[in-house]
Amino acid sequence: MVEQYLAADQRHDWAGSWSLLCRAVQRQVGSFESYVRVKDETMVSAGADPADVSITVGEARERPDSVPRSYLVTFWVGHDGERLREEMLVVEQDGILRVCGG
After folding, report:
1. CA distance 83 to 75
2. Which residues face 69 on adjacent strands?
3. Average pLDDT of 60-65?
4. 11: which DSSP letter?
5. Half-sphere exposure of 90 (CA within 13 A, CB side)
6. DSSP states along 19-60
7. Using CA atoms, how far apart are residues 14 and 23, in angstroms rounded to an integer?
8. In whole angstroms, what is the distance from residue 29 CA to residue 14 CA?
9. Which residue has the higher pLDDT, 83 or 52?
């Protein structure tokens, strides 16, 4: 699921990445139109061509005693010879895993 979300971001498939977000993040952003605007601005300011960025998803660690069930997923972003380690929070909503923060 994290791979799907990050791949949608790389393709600028904002509808795809929006559909994988948890409700709390969608409420915080406000609307799909606001999400698109922020994503477009972020891509412009980042300046990296998505084709030049590599993403590797690693392990998912369940967060003990979390309700709803949630996981921290490690992933690495590579660009220009650098490799950054990141984590993303994933939560279960209605039986489906959704991205809920990075």
Report:
1. 10
2. none
3. 90
4. T
5. 23
6. HTB-HHHHHHH-SHHHHHHHHHHHHHHH---GGG-EEEEEEE
7. 16
8. 13
9. 83
Instruction: Write down the pLDDT at residue 43.
Output: 76
Cα–Cα distance for residue pair 83/53, rounded to 1 Å = 10
**pLDDT surpassing 70 at residue 70:** yes
* Paired tokens of 76: 């690495």
The arrangement of secondary structure in 2-99, i.e. its CATH architecture, is Roll (3.10)
> What φ, ψ does residue 96 adopt, rounded to 5°?
-120, 140
Name the one residue in this structure whose structure tokens are 């069930």. Answer: 69
Please check the confidence at residue 31 and state whether its pLDDT lies above 90. Answer: yes
What percentage of the chain carries pLDDT values higher than 70?
Answer: 90
Neighbours of 42 (CB within 10 A): 10
